[in-house]
Write a structure and sequence with these properties.
Length: 704
């Protein structure tokens, strides 16, 4: 029977002209008994947007008909962009008047009204909505005598939702609510809905975070059947299973994590070999021993895709009985692992490796802080407490340095952007915001996990088995070209053409600007010029790491791709990968890669929004106070200032009254018309906190 892939390949051929289903059936010799399935396949492809059916009932792919299929990304200003499914196509601009009822994140078909060229972007109009994304919307309820409406928390959703009187469900003015849409918007008509859940008054403690959880549809509870399954999993490893595995319980194996981490999914060991090489052991929780393919646990883990780390809580991918219990590599208890031994020479090359199922018993639950204090400060009490491990930690530091230098030689890009740590009190109020530490122990684990992920990815690539890779594609040539023009103002230039850019060129630039005034601006714009990393069944390499092979193997407790590839590795080790299984895996890894990439983006947005919320709340306690900051970006109506504690606020250009300032988009600066005074990305400024809107997560500064 013909597949979707074969049909699409046929329609992409240059000589193809749109055909009816009968003509296509004749080409592929579809028999009458299979005709029902064939028509259903075409209908399914049409509904998803893979093919378009013309008015004459003929089928063709969208690109050949001047159409683009993808996801609509709206902006707060009302217009949007279609992000095409076909990654080779550019984003298409859609004006507010051409949205035709489509909302943020809807899957749509757009007709191109102007193709990209002559320095102008591609523009289009939405002609069909394939799938609605916003079936429920979180917002603030406002009522009048006979009706109410909900103003969405997501400012990219411009429509207010009309609520008839009979659908209030107890909602009152100023309350946060979850609204189900009952009628979709049209060109000149707002959507209608009903109140499904009242979350609490917008000013009540906890309502703010709960609103974000509902907005991103993050599942707080596990279904009963998932909890039942996890409750039936034993708390201890059976002697029978231990007997089947390589016993590593005698080894000096430790976990090194943050002090507040509870899901410990990786442990390490390092030994110096007689030949001068190092043997690095990486031991990853064997989650797939407990989470069987197709089980309720597995389906729920795939649905969630990732654990989500919000500012005040974790929404885990797996129930705590697994994530903090039998799967977590807690000290002095037997745990099953997927283990990797790597022999690494003094140049940082993996000269030998072995992948196997093991059983371990970690000696200590170490923290980044304690290991760093041992290595950086030679803290006497810690050295005495962990005397039998100190030499191991020193060997780890040596090996991490070797791996870092090798990564550096090949051109890996290391952005030094600080992450923020938000400290909350018992009532979830932010009492301190500071830069998260990235000390020697953090870097040790980072280097060990990267080399392990590369080793696994390369091993599986050469076996030609379906797999989930972590890929970071080459940057868009136009973005790199614009970036190159910008850095020319500072006297820098990237080596090589934008089409054949090597990451080493960007790494060299980062070294040149280190410690200079323009470092922040150039680093920021460089990062914005790169693509987002994602999961893919194809090995496309990792540009940022300058790595030919990369995957995520080291966190199966909190990331579904890691869990999925553990399952494939186990089948490889146990020699269960026959042709039938391999063909099934192709579909499984494609779905896991796409869905996990999407869930990762949702998690990142939710995490960022809770951080922004608490940063705004923190700054609301400091209105009128002055701080030093650096201009982090410049836009047409103002500039964002980043403070030492990572908080960003906006200085509106209208607040500068000493001159009339002109926006220079190309050079990312404002210039005073009379005084010639400039404000450029990277400039240091002193600001005063002028106003904060916590609900909108907006912080306004003024220049002192």
């Amino acid at each position: 029977m013909v597949s979707k892939e074969i049909l699409l390949e046929f329609m992409r051929e240059q000589a193809y002209n749109p055909m009816s289903y009968k003509e296509l059936a004749a080409v592929f010799d579809i028999q009458s008994e299979d005709m029902g399935y064939f028509i259903s396949l075409l209908d399914e492809m049409e509904q998803y947007g893979d093919v378009i059916k013309t008015k004459k009932r003929r089928y063709a792919i969208p690109e050949r008909m001047n159409l683009v299929v993808g996801k609509l990304q709206s902006t707060q200003k009302g217009f949007g962009f279609i992000i095409p499914d076909n990654t080779e196509l550019n984003d298409v601009f859609i004006s507010a008047s051409d949205l035709n009822g489509a909302m943020h994140n809807d899957r749509v078909i757009g007709r191109m009204s102007r193709k990209k060229g002559n320095g102008k972007r591609a523009e289009g109009e939405i002609i069909r909505i394939l799938e609605r994304a916003n079936k429920e919307i979180v917002g603030t309820f406002e009522s009048s005598k006979n009706f109410g409406f909900v103003v969405s928390d997501d400012k990219r959703i411009k429509h207010d939702i009309y609520i008839p009187r009979g659908e209030f469900n107890g909602a009152k003015d100023g309350y946060k609510v979850v609204t189900q849409i009952t009628r979709w918007p049209e060109a000149r008509r707002n959507p209608e809905g009903r109140i499904m859940e009242v979350l609490g008054h917008k000013d009540d403690i906890g309502t703010d975070i709960l609103s974000i959880i509902r907005k991103y549809n993050l599942p707080e509870r596990f279904p009963k059947k998932v909890l039942r399954e996890s409750d039936n999993i034993p708390d201890v490893v059976s002697e029978e299973e231990i007997a089947k595995r390589r016993d590593l319980r005698h080894m000096n194996i430790v976990t090194i994590d943050g002090a507040d981490a509870k899901d410990l999914d990786d442990a390490v060991s390092v030994e110096k070999l007689p030949n001068g090489n190092y043997r690095l052991g990486v031991y990853i929780a064997d989650v797939t021993y407990y989470v069987k393919e197709g089980s309720p646990l597995d389906k729920e883990a795939l649905k969630r895709g990732t654990s989500v780390y919000l500012v005040d809580r974790v929404i885990p991918m797996l129930p705590k009985r697994l994530s903090n219990g039998i799967c977590s590599l807690n000290p002095n208890v037997e745990r099953l692992t997927m283990s990797v031994f790597m022999e690494i020479n003094t140049r940082g090359q993996v000269v030998n490796h072995e992948i196997f199922e093991g059983v371990i018993k970690t000696k200590e639950r170490m923290t980044y802080g304690d290991v760093s204090d041992i290595l950086e400060k030679e803290e006497p009490e810690l050295i005495k407490r962990y005397d039998y491990l100190v030499e191991d930690f020193k060997a780890m530091e040596e090996l991490a340095g070797i791996l870092s230098r090798r990564k550096n030689r090949r051109g890996s890009i290391d952005f030094n952007f600080p992450e923020s740590k938000i400290v909350l009190d018992d009532e979830v109020r932010p009492i301190e915001i500071k830069k998260a530490e990235r000390r020697i122990a953090n870097r040790i684990i980072e280097e060990f996990m990267i080399v392990c992920n590369e080793t696994i990815a390369e091993h599986m690539y050469w076996l030609k088995i379906p797999f989930v890779y972590r890929v970071h594609e080459l940057p868009d040539s136009e973005k790199i070209s614009n970036f190159n023009k910008f850095i020319h103002n500072f006297g820098y230039h990237l080596k090589g053409t934008s089409e054949e850019l090597h990451p080493k060129a960007l790494q060299d630039l980062l070294k040149k600007i280190e410690g200079k005034k323009e470092e922040h601006i150039i680093s920021t714009l460089m990062l914005r010029s790169l693509r987002q990393a994602r999961y893919s069944p194809e090995n496309l390499g990792h540009f940022g790491l300058a790595s030919n092979y990369y995957c995520h193997f080291t966190s199966p407790i909190r990331r579904y791709p890691d869990l999925q590839i553990h399952r494939i590795i186990r089948e490889m080790i146990r020699e269960k990968l026959n042709q039938n299984r391999i063909s099934k895996l192709k579909a499984i890894v494609g779905n896991a890669a796409d869905h996990s990439s999407e869930r990762e983006r949702v998690a990142v947005e939710a995490e960022r929004e809770t951080d922004d919320l608490k940063k705004a709340e923190y700054m609301s306690y400091h209105i009128g106070e002055e701080f030093d900051g650096i201009i982090s970006s410049v836009i047409s109506f103002g500039m964002f200032i980043e403070l030492e504690n990572t908080v960003e606020g906006l200085v509106r250009i209208s607040s500068l009254v000493d001159d009339y300032y002109i926006f220079d988009e190309i050079n990312h600066l404002f210039r005073g018309e009379r005084t010639n005074r400039t404000f450029r990305i990277g400039d240091e400024v002193r600001i005063k906190v002028f106003d904060v809107n916590v609900a909108q997560k907006e912080i306004d500064f003024i220049i002192v």
